[in-house]
Amino acid sequence: MSDTISSGQFSLAGVSAAAAAAFREGRKASSEQDFLKAIQYFSEALEFDQDRIPALFRARVFEYRGLCFWLMGEFKAAAKDYKESLETSDNIDQKARARVRLGELADFRGEYGAAAELYNQALQEGTATENLLVVGRARRGLGILDRRQGDTERALRQLTQALAIFRQGGETREQGRALTSLGRTRQARGEYQQALTAHREAYTLLESVNDRWRVAQALNDLGECHQALYDVEQAYAYHQQALKMATEAGARLLIPEIKRNLGVDLVESGRYEQGLAYLQAALQGTREHGNREHEALTLYQLARAYLQHGSDGLAVQVVLALTHVAEQLNADRYRALAAFAHGELLFHQGRQAEALNELNLAMLAAQTAVDRGILWKLHAAMSHATENEQIAAVHLNIAAEFIRQTAEPLQDAHLRQTFLNAPPVLAVLQAANINPHQI
Question: Measured between alpha carbons, how far is 280 from 208 in angstroms, rounded to an integer?
Fold first, then answer.
């Protein structure tokens, strides 16, 4: 396969001076993340000499304009441009590029089957033409799908290959994106130290190319790792910084996700009403964008918040909505979260036998699809729901083992102790007769 890689260098032969100038201005505005201005310039480039403009040039401009629309959250316009890009030129490389973009759009909407088909076809085309950029992007997309479906081992393989390809070509921005996906996969496995390392490297690389949109994403992800480890103060600081940067960069896609995390931070720190407001705003945002994955994650956090504060009636509505979204997504991770939330609700309602059945369903779905951060909580919940003391002890010991596996790799002693001494964690360790200072 070729040793060279390109982010978009291609010949402007046959393109009029006016169209080429508008195109270059569009690329400049896009790199500065002034997407509205970029869209204007790309639109101008498409208007010049429409009958004589090379098809490949038009297809590439449609792709770039579509990406601007996508980053602004204008999904219908993005999809229209990506499809135009796919259909305008017979160039295989360009078709593969457009397919990857359409795959990202399908993935965001939770249409995982369609996304996989697009990525796999792009991968075949990119491999045939030795286009490393397309191959790397397609592998990254497939890795993300694998993570969403719960196959994190395969996700790591795909994403590691994507990262190697981008490093080979010196593609800084694409390396940052691959590292973000690797960090999220490590996070989804409960491997927080490796996740933190990946997110920090992603932050450094993306900051070096002034990609404010994705720097905000890296800050959000760093905060999410600290949140999972109950380092809520640091998580809140990261998420506040991420929200400020995302707002300034006009990164509308990221804002609901960041607000969800801020809501969790605030609920965990005892500021329930403020936290609830952020979670509700996050839910509205994810629904406006049609992002079912983040809708499911937000509903899960809302359910937990309502249950912790005795709002069982509201929790019932949220759990029903979560179950519906999980069925639409058709992925074990979200089925597990929905069943877990339903089981906890039933337990709060005093329906212990039904709660145990639902928690067992959550456990079946969770075995390969859920991180240790959820698994130890799920085992702890099952230890409370079962009346058999021996089975309860087994669940407690498993929960404690997942806690140990989470804590031991953490290199920051303060972070490790913060996690081990968090009340929910400490309760499990004490019930299992384990001294947190010996972990």
Answer: 34
DSSP string, 58-112: HHHHHHHHHHHHHHTT-HHHHHHHHHHHHHH---HHHHHHHHHHHHHHHHHTT-H
CB 260 within 8 A of CB 293: no
Other CB atoms within 10 A of residue 9 CB = 7
**Could you state, in order of their start, the residue ranges of all structural domains in the chain?**
17-228+315-438
Measured between alpha carbons, how far apart are the two ends of the chain, in Å? 48
Please tell me the total number of residues recorded for the chain in this structure. Answer: 439
pTM for this entry: 0.90
Q: What is the CATH number of domain 17-228+315-438?
A: 1.25.40.10
Whole-number Å distance between alpha carbons of 178 and 206: 11
Distance CA 349, CA 311 (A): 11
Per-residue pLDDT of the chain (439 residues; tens, 9 = 90+): 333 334 455 678 788 888 999 999 999 999 888 999 999 999 999 998 666 788 999 999 999 999 999 998 898 999 999 999 999 999 999 999 999 999 999 998 889 899 999 999 999 999 999 999 999 999 999 999 998 887 889 999 999 999 999 999 899 999 999 999 999 999 988 899 999 999 999 999 999 999 999 999 999 999 999 999 999 999 999 999 999 999 998 888 999 999 999 999 999 999 999 999 999 999 999 999 888 999 999 999 999 999 988 888 999 999 999 999 999 988 888 999 999 999 999 999 999 999 999 999 999 888 766 677 888 999 999 999 999 999 999 999 999 999 999 999 999 999 999 999 999 999 999 999 898 888 8
Q: How far apart are CA 112 and CA 333, in angstroms?
A: 14
